[in-house]
Amino acid sequence: MLSQQSTTGFYKAPVCKGLLGCMFLTCTAIHVPMIAHLRQYLACQIPQVIISGQIWRLLFSRLTFIHTKDLICSALVIYYFRIFERRMGSRKFSSYLLGTCTIATILEICTVMLLSQFDIDYHNGGYLPPGLYGLIFPLYVNYFLDIPRIAVSSFIGVPLTGKTVTYLLGLQVASTSQATIISSLCGLVAGIIYRKNIFKVQRWLVVPRFIAKSFDKLFGWLLNSSEPKYKQMGATLELQRQEQTDILEQQYYYNRTQEFRQQRGQGYSERLVDDGVNADGILGYFLRQRQRPTENLEPSQENIQILVDMGFEHARAVEALRSSSNDLETATSILLRQ
Question: For the residues 108-135, what does the mean pLDDT come to?
Fold first, then answer.
C-alpha cells in the first residue's frame, strides 16, 4: 500500500492529509501525561449530552481513536481512500464526509436509544465509541461498488485481490467491541443513504463554497502537496500498480534486447538503443513501428525463437508475427500491449 512507485502521496488530497494529521495529533495529546485529562472530552454519553445541550461532545468524539491499533489501521485506510478525494475534488469530498458522518451519528444515537428501550447495553451506559467510524466506513460503499476487483493470488483456494488488505483493515477497526461494530454498520448504512441520495441528503448536506475557499486560504499552505515526480498516476491503486509493472516489464525487455545485440548485430535492438535507453523510448518506438506498412509474410523460425526466448508463449508469438507479417518489432509491441 505504501510502495514508493505505486503511490503519489497526498497530491490533490488535502482533506485526507488534514484528517490524518488531526487523528495523530489528537491521539498523541490524549496519551501525553501532562494533558491526558483532555481524554474526558472524547466521552459522549447518550442521551445525557442531548439533554444537557453539550452537542459539541458529538464532534469531539469523532476526532480520533483511543486505541493505537485502530489509529494505525484507520490511517492506512484513509491514506488509500484519498483516491476518492482526487476523483470528487476536495469540496465535494468534504461534503460527502460531512453528510455521511452526520447521518451515521444520527443512526448511532437512534440505535443506542432504541437498544436502551429493550434493556440492551452494548455501549457501557450509552457512551458512543470515539473514532472516525462515520467518516471511514461510508467510503467502503464507494470502494466496493466503484473499485474493480482484480485477483492477484489465492490462499487455500480463496482468491485474494488488491482490495483484501483494505477490507481486513476495516474489519480490524470495526471488531474492537460490540459498540464499534454498531458504529461501523451505521457508517455503512450512511454511505448507502448518501450514495442513493435518499431524502435528497446530497442537496442539503453540502460544504458552502465560501467555507471551502476560506479553509484553503488558511490551511492550504500546510495541507497542499506538490505534484509527484512520477507523472503516471492511475485513479486506483490497482492501476498504479499496473503502471509500475508496465515500466518494470519494459525495462526488462530492454535488457533482453541488449543480449540480442551480439547475436543480431545492427538489428532491431540497435535501433531501440538509438531511440533512447529508457522505457518510454522503447514503448514509443514500438508504437511508431506499428504504423508502418508491412508485407504479407509468414513467421520465420528465427523471429519465433527470439520471442520465445523473451518469455512469450510459442502460440502467441506465432499469432503476433502472423498478424504483423513477420515484423519482429510490431509483433513485440502487440505482445507487450496484450
Answer: 91
Q: How far apart are CA 119 and CA 201, in angstroms?
A: 32
Q: Whole-angstrom Cα distance, residue 196 to residue 257?
A: 53
Find cell 484553503 and name the residue: 216
Find the Cα–Cα–Cα–Cα dihedral 219, 220, 226, 227, rounded to 10°.
140
- Beta bridge partners of residue 276, listed in sequence order: none
Domain extent, residue 313, equals 237-337
**pLDDT tens for residues 240-285?**
555 555 555 555 555 555 565 555 554 444 444 444 444 444 455 4
Number of domains in the chain: 2
Look-up: residue for cell 508504437?
287
* Final residue in a domain of this structure, among 190, 223, 256: 223
CB–CB of 326/297 below 8 Å?
Answer: yes
In a domain, 60, yes or no: yes
pTM score, two decimals?
0.66
- Which cell is 309 given? 526466448
Measured CA to CA in angstroms, residue 327 lies from 193, 273, 300, 303, 333 at distances of 56, 18, 10, 8, 10
Do 209 and 320 sit in the same domain of this protein?
A: no
Residue 284 has a CB neighbour count (10 Å cut-off) of: 13
Residues 203 and 175 in one domain: yes
Q: Which of 214, 169, 212, 207 is nearest to 2 (CA)?
A: 169
Q: What is the CB neighbour count within 10 angstroms for residue 122?
A: 16
